[in-house]
Amino acid sequence: MELDPIAIPDPIITEIDTPTEDPDAPPDGGYGWVIIFVCFIHTFWINLWAGSWGILQAALLRTTLKGSSLSALSFVGSLGVALGPALGIPAIRIVRIIGARAGMTIGIVIYGLGCLASSWAVGSLVGLFFACGVSYGIGSAFTDTLYNTLPVLWFKKRLGLANGIVKLGGSFGALVGAVSVGYLTEGVGVAWTFRILGIASLLTGIPTALLIKDRGAPPEYPVKWSVFRDACFSWHFAAGAVGIFPIYAPTFFLPYINNALGFSNSTSIATLACLLVCMSVGRILTGYACDRVGSMNALFFTSLVNAVSLFAVWPFSSNLGLVLLFCILNGLSNGGFAVAIPTAVGRHLPIDDAPGALSLLFTGWAPGIMGGNAISAALIQVTHADVAESIVPFRPAMYYFGGTALLSTACGLVARLIYSRDMRVIA
User: Fold this and answer.
1) How many domains does the chain have?
2) What residue numbers bound the domain in which 377 lies?
3) Which of 151, 191, 193, 196 is nearest to 169 (CA)?
4) How far are the Cα atoms of 31, 94, 218 from residue 212, in angstroms, in the given order?
5) What are phi and psi of 275, to 5 degrees?
6) pLDDT tens figures, 76-116
7) 205 and 236 inside one domain
8) Backbone angles phi, psi at 411, to 5 degrees
9) Alpha carbon of 393 to those of 124, 216, 246: distances in Å?
10) What is the model's pTM?
């Protein structure tokens, strides 16, 4: 009996699909931390100037610009701070052509040379307008654009922490400026103070800017106006445009309030230092919160605390304890706002659209920066708060800024609810 051979089937080799990483996805680390370090240094210098302008302004009025108009000199500072975001779109279009490294280098060179030029223009209001205000605005347009967009290209899951570290550099800059610039103007004069700032920024800014490199092919940084069709972005844009009005109000008004309450000079400095330190802590904590509970959730919480501190705590801060409570609450939330909103936008949009959208976002801040400072000065003049002996004359301004903060909070909440009505969702 013959048995038929049993056919043995050929072994089938099946290919198991293994998940592969998206080569275009941000690496969330590696050389990205070098990029964050560079952004930290440049944010430090940009915010040091903005944070110490009031001290420089006072020194100029005491020495080389005696008899000049306070409002005219204040305009120089306001113009410089507002030009940075206002020129964000032209700056990013130039960066698209020359690259991020050249853009960051140009920004810090214009900033540093502007400080040096300002040292020879301390006796001329018109000279300071160009050498100080315009040059700072143009230089900061490049640096602002890049330190707000580069983290999006290198980080996704840790974007909140990365943005927090970058903005921490700004807080350190403002704190160092508030402490050191006053001593420099008294010790070496305002002209040499400008020279020291210019030389130090060039010596530290240029070498670090050369460390910038593009990840893969240089990004095109497209500015797409169609991004406003995205409802979340549009409401975040509104939240930023309105929310920027009260951002600088505490540092603007705090010296006047301390004087009205009869605080000593050392106590006044301590309250301002408390506010700035809490801003630094708030930026790191908010960055961590963005990665843990969601950037939109963090934005809503920081905006709400900021509004409550301005609307419900500040108007009743008639003693040192309440002033310090306000400084803690407002510092933590105020600093957090600057981290949460770019993280929310950068994380929500596709990576190709995020840099251009962030430029649009910060361009929308220019009217609020310019208008916020002008409104603050006008309110002080109308209510005679500069010669007040209690907190009462400041309350109209406090309620105004608190109201704008509440409106900004509402805009952020709408964006959050559009994303998901379930507040437990990480968004």
Assistant:
1) 2
2) 222-427
3) 151
4) 10, 16, 12
5) -60, -45
6) 888 898 999 999 999 988 998 899 999 999 999 999 999 99
7) no
8) -65, -45
9) 34, 57, 18
10) 0.85
